[in-house]
Amino acid sequence: RNMEYKSWLTKNGLSFKNGNINVRTGDENIISGKLDWSKSKNYDYKGRAYLEVPFLFNQNLFIHFKEFSGSSQFSMVFRNLPNEEFEAAIRSTTSGKIIHDEFGNKNEGTIQSYFLLNGEKKTLWVKREKDKSFIRVKRVRNDEVPRVIAENKSVQRSSCSTIAFTEYSVYCWGDVECVTYSHTSYYIFCTGDRNDEKIDDGDWGGGGGGGGDPSPPPPINQPDTCNTAKAMEATSFSSLPIFDSAKSQIQNAASDGNEHAISFGKNPNGNVIKSEMSTGNEYTAPIPYIENVIADFHNHQNVNPPTAGDIYTFIDKTLAHSTYETRYVMTMNGTIYALVINNLQDAIDFNTQHPRQPPIGDFEPDFPEDINNEINEMVQTGSGTIEIAITYILSKYKTGVSLMRANAGGQFKKLRTEVINNGGNTIYISNNCQ
Predict the structure, then answer these.
(1) pTM for the full model?
(2) Taking a C-beta distance cutoff of 8 angstroms, is the pair 285, 261 a contact?
(3) Which among 79, 263, 312, 393 has the fewest CB atoms less than 10 Å away?
(4) 176 falls in which pLDDT band (50, 70, 90)?
């Protein structure tokens, strides 16, 4: 019956209609996989007929990545609908030391994530080392914990902990191209009633997960210090025509000597949309509201990177909106920076442990006085720049935020600062990701 599935895929498979998948690796190469129909297998799950077809990458079922600890396998899973039609999803299965507990320790486990051909995330299964079988996990962000507890009286805050794990998402440009990339996701895993989310008829599962037991080969344990997946996400989004349009709007408006801002969101169809542009003053601009916000973009009327105010309000917005991911900042010489979250709990802790100074007049909130003094010392006596100093502060104080900058090719790379001893003097230099 494979011919029926192939025919359906050709008509309804969007970017996967030819049976190909593109996976972006940490070194920004694209690994192409092809469906191997000869290895397809049928199975039943919850009374529904499924067909699983694996992707092969240079005749290999598994991909090892240098940027994180784990190995992954991809399959396309078809299942029958009541009207004798089909629907399909991509299933990624990743195993290794990929599950992070609330203390930052990495533990063995397997993550199985389903997403539709348009990139929409569906069922998520987790199997930790201590679990006997897969558990269906609800995708709950850290900032949603109060709502989870309020909705379910039997769940106490103490029974919920953060699980950070490497999974995959699909980023699509209409029906033209889809790229699959790895990234670290942070969700709440609650014991008790929410430990094993109720399984419903719309869930994807069976076969190699949700009751099965996939066993990829041993992972390669090489931590990603460059936040490669986040950098790729920032680069991919900034390559969209709607981003270029916003950039042109802001550049043209900046001649008035003020800051301007535009927000990006998604409409009910999942398409990226942008807000009207706001106008502020020389030092700040109000960030416009938009439904399902995913990013925002504003300019600086100087050559400095994102400020303390940009960082604090970025963390605030990340906590307030689970869909929000990136803040772009463009300087007056055209340099574009991106702020991304790499550890949400660290960001929450930084907000609490190092509260901002309130804004004065037209200015934004600022770092506490001790951090500002440290920045000034780095710049004045440590041969550092404002960019080097901000990058160092973000790392030293475990802000959970990474600062990235677009290179000449438009690719975002994480900025890093190295501290060296030069004849008894402390010097701060760039050691940026390449």
Answers:
(1) 0.53
(2) yes
(3) 79
(4) low
On whether the CB atoms of residues 140 and 121 are closer than 8 A, the answer is no
Spatial separation of the C-alpha atoms in residues 10 and 13, rounded to whole Å: 6
- Give the CA count within 13 Å in the CB-facing half-sphere of 299: 27
CA angle 405, 180, 398 (to 5 degrees): 40
Token digits of residue 416: 């890093």
In 3D space, the residue among 316, 107, 52, 92 whose CA is nearest the CA of residue 183 turns out to be 92
Sort residue 119 into left (φ over 0), alpha (ψ -120 to 50) or beta.
left
pLDDT class of 406 with cuts at 50, 70, 90: very high
Sorted by sequence, the CB contacts under 8 Å of residue 252 that are 6+ apart come out as: none
CA 402 to CA 225: how far, in whole Å?
10
* Helical spans, DSSP H, in 59-213: 145-151
Q: Are 356 and 364 in contact (CB under 8 A)?
A: no
Q: Which structure tokens are listed for 383?
A: 């041969």
- The alpha carbons of the chain give a radius of gyration, in whole angstroms, of 23
Distance in angstroms (rounded) separating the CA atoms of residues 325 and 293: 9
Contact 94, 168 (CB under 8 A): yes
State the pLDDT at residue 186: 59
- What is the 3-state composition of the chain as percent helix, strand, coil, each rounded to the nearest 5? 25, 35, 40
Structure tokens at 66: 């240098």
How far is 288 from 367, CA to CA, in rounded Å? 24
Other residues' Cβ atoms within 10 Å of the Cβ of residue 14: 18
List C-alpha distances in Å: 410 to 172, 224, 239, 298, 406.
Answer: 19, 21, 8, 17, 5
Q: What is the pLDDT, as a whole number, of residue 203?
A: 79
Q: What is the pLDDT of residue 215?
A: 36
Q: Which residues, 6+ apart, have CB-to-CB distance to 105 below 8 Å?
A: none
The pLDDT-based confidence of 147 (bands split at 50, 70, 90) is low
